[in-house]
Design a protein that fits this description.
Layout: E1 3-11, H1 20-32, E2 36-40, E3 43-47, H2 50-57, E4 64-67, H3 70-81, H4 86-95, E5 100-102, H5 104-115, E6 120-121, H6 128-140, E7 151-156, H7 162-169, E8 174-184, H8 188-198, E9 200-206, H9 209-221, H10 225-228, E10 232-236, H11 238-246, E11 251-255, H12 260-273
Parallel strand pairs: 1-2, 1-9, 4-5, 4-7, 5-6, 7-8, 9-10, 10-11
Antiparallel strand pairs: 3-8
Length: 274
């Protein structure tokens, strides 16, 4: 099967609160750099523990909120929507001046769009370790609150311990609560087969370890392993890079930050090296 040179397959989940222009950012930036793009919705999400999350959000017990993905922000919004109407005003009153720590510009953009609030920070961080170190620096430099209350960390059911262990090592307490499960899209196999039946993308970009796992599972079920040798696999961030390596795939490039420009630069840098 022929490979469409310059074609990029984005294995990316769409955030419910992501504005349309935000979703188009990757396509716009990559196409302006001379690539063509196709998007593959790989994941779906099941929200859990929302009642418990809602109870925590309306307690004045925390010094900040950690959001490591758009889904975390969506869980916060959904938990409030499922409660009494007055809970949202209490939430806004409690959290409006507290820091909302976010990984990457997409998470911050979604949180701003659906939660409002005021103090968003840390979005320059590309992964949990970077954000945790940012939080430690911020909280240690806050002279007005030497004994800060814990942070609230709503996260994925399969979240790694990186955030927890790094913060604990820095002397910062937090409460971790799983609020969503990550599942494969119900139409993943059909969608992927349709894409691969036309022409192979030259580049396949993965945004999470879960996307790596589910896409490679489909390829193996279809006994299409030979196709892997013809495509170049790109990771968003070091955690996804590690997942590709563990899946036995050769990593062509890694975007160190979860944003369109970093991805475009990573691809173009590899072309320059040729």
């Amino acid at each position: 099967m022929s490979v469409a040179r310059g074609k990029v397959l984005l294995c990316k989940a769409k955030a419910q609160g992501e504005p349309e222009e935000g979703e188009k950012d990757y396509v716009t930036v990559l196409e302006s750099a001379g690539f063509s793009c196709t998007q593959l919705p790989v994941l779906r999400f099941e929200f859990i523990n929302l009642k418990k999350l809602r109870a925590l959000l309306v307690q004045n017990s925390y010094s900040g909120l950690i959001l490591t993905s758009p889904r975390s922000a969506e869980a916060v919004k959904l938990s409030l929507e499922q409660g009494e109407a007055w809970l949202e005003s209490i939430f806004s009153h409690i959290w409006k001046n507290l820091p909302i720590y976010c990984i990457g510009p997409t998470t911050e953009r979604v949180a701003r769009n659906i939660l409002g609030l005021q103090r968003y920070c840390g979005s320059e961080s590309g992964n949990a370790e970077e954000l945790a170190k940012f939080i430690i620096n911020e909280m240690q430099s806050a002279s007005d609150n030497p004994e800060a209350r814990p942070l609230l960390y709503p996260c994925s059911a399969i979240a790694r311990d990186t955030m927890s262990t790094t913060l604990e090592a820095g002397g910062i307490t937090m409460q971790k609560l799983p609020v969503y499960k990550t599942l494969p899209s119900k139409t993943l196999q059909t969608d992927l087969n349709d894409i691969l039946s036309n022409s192979l993308p030259e580049y396949v970009v993965f945004f999470s370890p879960s996307a790596v796992r589910y896409v490679t599972n489909v390829i193996k079920r279809n006994r299409s392993e030979k196709l892997i040798e013809q495509m170049k696999f790109v990771a968003i961030g070091p955690v996804t890079e590690k997942a590709l390596v563990e899946a036995g795939l050769k990593v062509y490039a890694t975007s160190r930050q979860p944003d369109p420009i970093s991805l475009s630069n990573a691809l173009q840098n590899m072309l320059v090296k040729k």
